[in-house]
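Running this now, will post back.
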Amino acid sequence: MSNKIYDVIVCGGGTAGTAAALAASRLGATTLVIEQFGSLGGTQSNGWVTPMMPNYLGEFKLNRGLNLDIIDAQSLSQPVEDGEPHADVWYDPVMLGYVLDELAEAAGVECLFCATLLDARVIDGQIVAVEVLSRGSRFWIEGKAFIDCTGDAELSKLAGAELMGGNEDGVHQPMTLRFKMGNIDLGKARLEFKHWRLVNEYHLETGFGEAKESPMKDWVFEAIDLGILQHDDLGYFQIFTMNGCPGEMAFNSPRVAHLDPLDPFDFSRAHQIGRAKIFRIAKFMRAYFPGFENAFVSGIAPMMGIRESRRVVGEYILTGDDHQNCQKFEDTIARNRYPVDIHLKVGLDYRRFPPGEFHDIPYRSLVVKGLKNLWVAGRCLSADFVAQSAVRIQPVCRAMGEAAGAAAALCSKANVSAKDLPYADLALHLDLSLPNPAPNHL
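Update: finished.
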């Protein structure tokens, strides 16, 4: 047992968890973040999910506060070119891990890396300690307030919270093992490939919900006939350049379907299948894609990209109807206008917003039902399958984490339960500003 009792313990130092820890520590709470990998950032720094998906009203970023602080810090280490809206979110994942270290140290966050959560001790509906395994040792750590940012709702599960997962049939979205390729002639790619969705002097991006139905389809089918690709390798296909990484592109593929992200053997197999797909895709890119003739796989993300697994039942369950109806809440902690984005075995279920609209995420969706001092943030929030597919993006997860961290710090100081925290007290620490006037043409 550690002798120290922390005001706030954040389990999971990923996208939401890093923001939660920073927010809590900046409000004076002694804060520990427990992370399974060797760095902060989760899907950003270890899953290589770059760039951040858009959540904007024109040039106005809807998620502010700590999200902007992290973007600004990244831009200082990795300057971006002027004149391109939101160019600052096209980050290098490797650099981001270092940037988050600096922010955590400045805020006074204590980090426990390479640690696995094993158990939780609950007394009268209140978590008092968590057990972890790290470097061959098992030990308990005590805390006053806890935040579940594990992505898979591991802490909530151990604490006995009510959980849900998958769609109406219990099926989860496919996973993706992301990778990058180097030694690309980006100039040639820019000029000779005619189907970029974004192309300028600094950035390239294109993507297709189903490559076999895209402008690349003839290449794909020929590559399948020649044995370069297997039939389900491409799938969903998307590539991006990255700031500070000349000659490299990041891939949002391959998609790995029909495996359960919560089954340890399925999850292990997903990594093997993903790696095999990656090297077949790389061979395809060298054979067909302009500028990739001499490219190679320059890295594979150490963390599998999981879009959805377990979700917590909170004081309020955000729904797909809330998303589509642009629902606003009196206890909002974040705003989102990213579409419903459900990856299927083939293609996507993609549902956009009306022009200029967004929906709110209420504080109650971060408060875990039945536990006095447990919050959730990130992709395991209290939301149904459809709503979760829209709010799992990084800027929204950062906003959720910031709100959960601030709430936990306030509650640990005042000795009040999560659901009894006055919203007005929390709102003082959140930047929920909107552009004035808000655009109505987006």
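The mean pLDDT is 94. More later if anyone needs it.
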